[in-house]
Amino acid sequence: MRRFLPDTFTLMLVTTVIIASFLPAKGAFATYFGYATDCAIALLFFLHGARLSRDVVIAGILHWRLHLTILAVTYAIFPLLGLGAGFIPSTILKPELYVGLLYLCVLPSTVQSSIAFTSIAGGNVPAAICSASASNLFGMFLTPLLVGLLMTTSGTSGFSLDALETILLQLLAPFILGQLLEPWIGGWVRARKKLLMPVDRGSILMVVYLAFSESVNEGLWHTFSITDIGVVIVMDALLLALVLCITMFGSRLLGFNKEDEITITFCGSKKSLASGVPMAGAIFAGQSIGAIVLPLMLFHQIQLMTCAVLAQKYAAKRAARQAAAVTAAA
């Protein structure tokens, strides 16, 4: 049953939302907290750049067919499914929440959980490392471009030049600096994951608190009901189920082996909370982003619970095949 319980970080996210609901940031405190949040996000992407080993990228490029498949799912199939959700009547799925769902669909894959689940299930871990890292790197360009294209097409506010400037200065520049310094500090950063984890999680919690504070001040919880939240949970679950089926059975139709199928399934079905929340603050600057990141926060927990069970099933089947092979050899 522990696999179905929320992880510690999810509980921290829920706690942050509750605090923001009752004690939202206002006035000068909100202004200075926003400056601190910007600095924390810049540090987060600097560490992302420093962690990404160039050797891993070079080694993974050789498996280009697998990487193209994962990128196609992340930046083509997911957005198409998001556009399909636009046919749901606004009386069922509120327009503000649909924007959040569509934004979720154009985000890059996760890094840590994609690699972890691939490893547990017995998949191609080096390819997972490369694909997940490449997804986040390309996401800095593709996510804002897709936001501008899809959300303008769907009649909602699109991407602006101010948002592009924010992404370049606050997200991409620190990432590039981290990559430039990777030969000297990369090993040190990768060896201290637990020590630097507060930067990862703390920066996301700061963005979530600031986002929901602004939304609460504008009447977020007076706008959406429990039914609205339930609709988002159902939509997130259906979206994940569809993509899992597409990646799992599609990889078999394309002739990938079992290890690559596992990698495609776990890397192609994830969406990154760590990248999505900071990018939302840059892309939707000046807007109420609490409703925009809400579908992503819910999807985050659903994907963790579902993929934890799926990884264990893959691992059990792999162990059974190995035991059968040993028995046959004997």
TrEMBL record:
The keyword Lipoprotein does not apply. The keyword Transmembrane helix applies. It comes from the Bacteria. Keywords: Membrane, Transmembrane, Transmembrane helix. GO terms for cellular component: plasma membrane. The chain crosses the membrane at residues 7-23, 29-47, 68-88, 100-125, 137-161, 167-188, 232-255, 276-299. Gene3D superfamilies: 1.20.1530.20. This is Bile acid:sodium symporter. It comes from Rhizobium straminoryzae.
